[in-house]
Specification:
homodimer; Chalcone isomerase; 2 helices; 6 strands; 30% strand; globular
């Protein structure tokens, strides 16, 4: 992760495995940070705890899984809403492919997007405390795509602190 | 987990979060252990690391996710085959349900089964080192169902140490 940051603000997970940076205040986002929010892919997220799977219908036709850092997972387990500052959720999305080994199964193909939500009520007062990042091949997509995040979350899941995913048993 | 065991053999994950017991040698499996193999649901598995999602077509119509203990995840990351003794994989399966909040998404409904594979080459010499457990509501299903595990894994994934799931990126 590029550390040449101006106006850096870092949140670390309990495991010190995550670092999310933003220089939104400076107006110069780091190369790998999302437009609007300045969210980056947190280090170590692939080893975070599992929250739930999902499937997205065609045309995207994806298998998905949401992982969370310790703060987010603890909030899920305790039913804490809103999610506390420092909560980070990462959605991993894959093209859904037919298994060549077991006919009834579809399995993950290529990674399509990694999507990140970071809770920081001071940093993101205009988006209900959430910062969003949507990444393809490790790079953030454009501002136009990021402008769609908030309205969809606000329109559909305002009663669950703007988070779609529930904790699977 | 019931600890009134005869002829106990325990494997602990690196995080000391897993314990799998069996008294197969004594012929008296503990109440919650699978027939044939004596595998139980490992403590703490729900916090294990995420390996991959999958979908199972109707009639089961499930969303699934496989989690692994540290030994198994390390083997996946390094491409170690066969999986070393102590590896444990847990598949969580859920009824696939339409999301009421986002039309293109299907999400986990009720838990259907929890399925466990334990690698112990000394304990399971007759099943390529793997012990199997299939659980509904925390209780193992019957011997007839457990008799189907091995043949399906042997018939389809003998070149991947009898494990279907691959590590998703």
């Amino acid at each position: 992760m590029k550390l040449a940051l101006l106006g850096v603000f870092a949140i670390s997970s309990l495991a010190l495995s995550a670092a999310v940076f933003s220089s939104a205040a400076s107006g110069v986002p780091p190369e790998n940070a999302s437009p609007i929010y300045g969210v980056t892919i947190p280090d170590g997220y692939r080893d975070w705890k599992f929250i739930a799977p999902a499937q997205e219908a065609p045309p995207l036709d994806e298998l998905r899984a949401v992982l969370g850092n310790d703060i987010a997972v603890e909030a899920y387990k305790k039913g804490t809403l809103p999610f506390p500052d420092g909560s980070i959720l990462v959605k991993l999305a894959y093209k859904r492919e037919q298994s060549t080994e077991f006919a009834p199964a579809t399995v993950p193909g290529a990674s399509t997007t990694v999507q990140v939500m970071v809770k920081d009520s001071k940093k993101y007062p205009d988006s209900h405390g959430w910062g969003f990042g949507r990444f393809v091949n490790g790079k953030p997509v454009d501002a136009a795509q990021h402008e769609t995040c908030l309205s969809c979350h606000v329109g559909n899941v305002k009663d669950h602190d703007f988070v779609f995913t529930r904790y699977a048993p």
